[in-house]
Amino acid sequence: MKQIFDYIDNHQHSFINRLIDYLRHPSISAQGTGMDEVAAYLVTWLSRLGFEARLMPTPGWPMVLGRRINRPETPTVLLYGHYDVQPPEPLEEWISPPFEPSIRDGRLYARGVGDNKGQHFAQILALESLLEFRGNCPVTSSCFWKARRKWAARTWPASFALTAICSRPTW
Fold first, then answer.
1. Which of 9, 51, 77, 146 has the most CB atoms around its CB within 10 Å?
2. CATH number where 33 lies
3. Secondary structure letter of residue 62 according to DSSP
């Protein structure tokens, strides 16, 4: 594991710059801002990492699904979350603009950095690092990011989502 952690440490600056770039893209479901663009960004990134990735249309904004199977007999790890953020208003309460990330006192500030864009970005970077270092993953990796934190649970049954992500059939 030390070698993987060294790899991550050696790429920390690049990873932070990429996170900052990602956080500049608003994805405010309540206002309809940037949702399709951020969903497409995630699908493109997952596809570059060798995932079967796609958007699943919903009556609102699309869900992002991704799956990478290295060996069919391995267990599946599910990365789950949402790619939308809350509206940033009131803007006057921000020290810096919400979609212009800034680092102050060693901390990154931007809308979505803690809930939930920073989290799934870190998860994908961990997978990317593992794939770069080892060439494969010891498990099947599945990703499911919905567009609204509570909306998908009311619209799509959980069993449907889990079947779509974790099952073995080709999409």
1. 146
2. 3.40.630.10
3. P
